[in-house]
């Protein structure tokens, strides 16, 4: 099977978690709306992929619609609390975020939100925790969720987020070839990865996975062990 590579616009969500520290704003307001997110990861740094999320607007006694809080697949562990589609927020609002995985609630948190004069959201709490470490999720649940997204459409961004987390656990003094082997070992922990090995001639990782009953072969090209470009091959 010849799988064509698909390109996606990946909004690396660094700015999305910015908490504006002041409610004041000059009249030349920027056009960019800042979304408020929670960053969820496991103790080993891997991003938390969730089955679903719900956000309850306490003051309005209602749940936000998916459009008002969802931000794509959450591949980087970034999960929306409010987005630019959320309307009607006052200067002080409370949202209750709930994340589900494997049929259970894995995270629940109240987040205080406000809106400045530009109409941009900010965190109303003085020390609102954005980043949370998630404990107690079994390896089996984590691996099954990972494998839900191992397909031609999503594997590129999934690998980028996962390998970025892996890179942070590796010593800078470790040879590049050894880093590649560590990534191979990690890939092979997942049943959906049918084969993986380091091609030392090209310093790349060759791997394969099953999609719609057919084997998809791919090459993982890594620069400085923190960015993963996927090339599909016959």
SSE blueprint:
Elements: E1 36-41, E2 52-57, E3 62-63, H1 66-69, E4 78-82, E5 93-101, E6 104-115, E7 121-123, E8 131-133, H2 139-148, H3 155-167, H4 176-187, E9 193-199, E10 204-211, E11 214-222, E12 228-233
Number of helices: 4
Report the portion of residues in β strands: 25-35%
Number of spatially distinct domains: 2
Element-by-element helix/strand order: EEEHEEEEEHHHEEEE
Q: Sheet with the most strands?
A: 5 strands, antiparallel
| Overall pLDDT level | 84
The parts where pLDDT drops under 50 for at least 5 residues are 1-25
End-to-end Cα distance, whole Å, is 6 Å
What is the tally of beta strands? 12
Q: Please state the structural category.
A: alpha+beta
Could you name the key traits of this structure?
234 residues; disordered N terminus; 2 domains; 17% helix; five-stranded antiparallel beta sheet; alpha+beta; four-stranded antiparallel beta sheet
Notes on the protein architecture:
The chain has helices at 66-69, 139-148, 155-167, 176-187; strands at residues 36-41, 52-57, 62-63, 78-82, 93-101, 104-115, 121-123, 131-133, 193-199, 204-211, 214-222, 228-233. It has 234 residues and is an alpha+beta fold. The chain folds into two domains: 15-133, no CATH class; 153-233, no CATH class. The strands form three sheets. A five-stranded antiparallel sheet has the order 3-2-5-6-7, with no helix packed on it. The chain has a four-stranded antiparallel sheet with strand order 9-10-11-12. The chain has a three-stranded mixed sheet with strand order 4-1-8, with no helix packed on it. The longest helix has 13 residues, at 155-167. The relative contact order is 0.16.
């Amino acid at each position: 099977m010849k799988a064509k590579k698909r390109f996606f616009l990946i909004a690396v969500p660094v700015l999305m978690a910015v908490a504006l520290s002041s409610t004041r704003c000059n009249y030349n307001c920027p056009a960019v709306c800042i979304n408020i997110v929670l960053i969820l990861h496991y103790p080993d740094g891997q991003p938390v992929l969730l089955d679903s999320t719900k956000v309850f607007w306490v003051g309005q006694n209602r749940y936000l619609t998916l459009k008002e809080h969802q931000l794509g697949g959450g591949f980087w562990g970034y999960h929306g609390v409010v987005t630019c589609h959320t309307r009607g927020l006052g200067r002080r609002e409370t949202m209750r975020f709930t994340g589900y995985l494997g049929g259970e609630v894995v995270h629940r948190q109240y987040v205080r939100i406000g809106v400045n004069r530009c109409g941009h959201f900010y965190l109303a709490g003085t020390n609102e925790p954005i980043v949370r470490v998630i404990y107690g999720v079994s390896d089996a649940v984590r691996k099954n969720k990972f494998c839900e997204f191992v397909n031609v459409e999503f594997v590129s961004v999934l690998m980028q987020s996962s390998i970025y987390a892996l890179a942070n656990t590796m010593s800078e003094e470790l040879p590049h070839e050894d880093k590649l082997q560590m990534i191979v070992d990690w890939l092979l922990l997942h049943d959906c990865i049918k084969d993986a090995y380091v091609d030392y001639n090209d310093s790349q990782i060759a791997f394969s996975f099953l999609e719609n009953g057919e084997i998809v072969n791919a090459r993982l090209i890594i620069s400085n062990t923190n960015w993963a470009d996927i090339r599909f091959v016959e």
